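Write out a record, fold above all:
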Amino acid sequence: MVDRLFADAGLAALYDPMNPSDQRADYGFYLPPVMAAPSVLDVGCGTGSLLRPARQAGHDGQLCGVDPAVGMLEQARAHTGIEWILGDVGSVGPDRMFDLVVMAGHAFQVYVRDDELRTALATIRSVLADGGRFAFETRNPLARAWEDWTPDRSVEAVDDDGRLVRMVREVEMPVTGDTASFSHTFTGPGRTRPRISRSTLRFLGADALSSFLSDAGLVIEEQYGDWDRSPLTGASPEIITIARSA
């Protein structure tokens, strides 16, 4: 089930204003390898905010984005010159091969069940060309990022009608195991009632992540704890991984 904030066209239109690319350090990390790869698949591409600047910067190879959320793809498809596919990673077709598969924006964390994660990783491995790489990130559970997702840290943006919209995120407590569930509530002038979207993300530790990758035939080539390429430690906010086929 796709989260409402991604499936709903009106809410999806707020994604880029609420997550401006010039304030995202992950794009600075991913853009160079995207530019260097002749063919790129962006899994969970959202509004296309990673592939669009690559094309604008002169990438002349194959750029393909896939996402299961209709609302997000509607935003992406406003930009031509890139292939946009509605669906999951298996929707790109069995005969497609890519030099780089990337998952930005913590999209990796939507795989909350073992079976769906194993299926996704096996499919990603199957579309990697010889020498290809899989680059992605997941939040380090030891950093407990969900503790900062509190109602007092709201985000605001202006919608297409010029109205101010406020988004508040609130976690369902207590958080147990390796998943966290939370809600996004959107309010603003002219809205008769709040619009609420509920989500669940999985926070895999480094050891569990390594095991899943190994089972899928993927080998960790590089791993970092933050976007400045600092080493992964217990205090690191991220687990940023670049893997290749075994």
User: Anything to note?
Assistant: The chain has a mean pLDDT of 96. The helical segments are 4-7, 9-12, 15-18, 25-36, 51-56, 70-76, 114-126, 206-215.
